[in-house]
């Protein structure tokens, strides 16, 4: 089968499509015939060597939508089931940017019925990151939350999920994204420098760091999206960062919210698997609203 890997670190030119053996599922695992797989900034980080791993082949891709085509012992899934899943980990020999991928059975969820596989493939990593970050903040209805990067993939899901939970959400994004951010459920919108403060919490999807932390009230909460990169605590503010984890049960809830219209997906462009390097080059250009998706 074909799979997208890096054997040495660098820019988009480091991305290679290689032929490799089809993986076999073990106990508690399933194999998915990939229909679509999202390309995320973390893949660019892996490609560039941000997570280390020099001297080994590293498979790219975390998001997947497709069809179960083989099951290991102890799995409740059946061949033919349509699923989505998150394959966690920056250093793995094979990722989801491949024709087949093996995942833990409990990492998968039934695929949404209201969108196609290309759109479904953009859900797992970004929506799970958003919901798990919100869980860490432990906010209650009525409390105020500032979401930075509110028009981005993680930030957009965070705004929608927070509003759905009854939080008072303010979105920070570029000025021309105001209409979109408000459509997600943000009560207030900010652009440019973060001038307002006094929020009960900040979910810093834009990785602003201390400027975002400064907007939290004394004793409030700050959650970033890069593990171990959060600013130090000040004024009694509890700081931390989400490290996303594969969770099929939670992903099932997110799929339900997508099918109910609470969440929505955004696809910027699709690329053939063989054009993975071109997709990385497009990601590096920036300015995307929505995810790039690879299709085998």
What does this structure look like?
The chain is of the alpha/beta class and 296 residues long. It has two domains: 2-123 and 265-295, Alpha-Beta Complex (Quinone Oxidoreductase, Chain A, domain 1), CATH 3.90.180; 126-241, Rossmann fold. It contains eight helices and 16 strands. The strands form three sheets. Strands 3, 5, 6, 7, 8, 15 and 16 form a seven-stranded mixed beta sheet that branches. Strand 12 (199-204), helix 6 and strand 13 (216-224) form a beta-alpha-beta unit. Helix 3 packs across helix 4. It is globular and about 55 Å long. The protein starts with a strand and ends with a strand. The model has no long low-confidence stretch (mean pLDDT 95).
Write the layout of secondary structure elements.
Elements: E1 2-6, E2 15-19, E3 29-39, H1 41-48, E4 58-59, E5 63-71, E6 82-86, E7 100-104, E8 108-110, H2 117-120, H3 124-137, E9 144-148, H4 153-164, E10 168-172, H5 178-183, E11 188-190, E12 199-204, H6 210-213, E13 216-224, E14 238-241, H7 248-259, E15 267-272, H8 276-285, E16 291-295
Parallel strand pairs: 9-10, 9-12, 10-11, 12-13, 13-14, 15-16
Antiparallel strand pairs: 1-2, 1-4, 3-5, 3-7, 3-16, 5-6, 6-8
* Gyration radius, in Å: 19 Å
Shape: globular
CATH architecture classification of the largest domain:
Alpha-Beta Complex
Q: Tell me the count of domains.
A: 2
Please give the count of helices: 8
CATH superfamily of the largest domain: Medium-chain alcohol dehydrogenases, catalytic domain
Gap between N and C termini = 10 Å
For this structure, what is the CATH class of the largest domain? Answer: Alpha Beta
Number of strands: 16
Let me know the average pLDDT: 95
- List the uncertain runs: none
Helix/strand/pairing category: alpha/beta
What CATH calls the topology of the largest domain is Quinone Oxidoreductase, Chain A, domain 1
Main beta sheet: 7 strands, mixed
Order of helices and strands: EEEHEEEEEHHEHEHEEHEEHEHE
**DSSP helix fraction:** 10-25%
- Fraction in beta strands: 25-35%
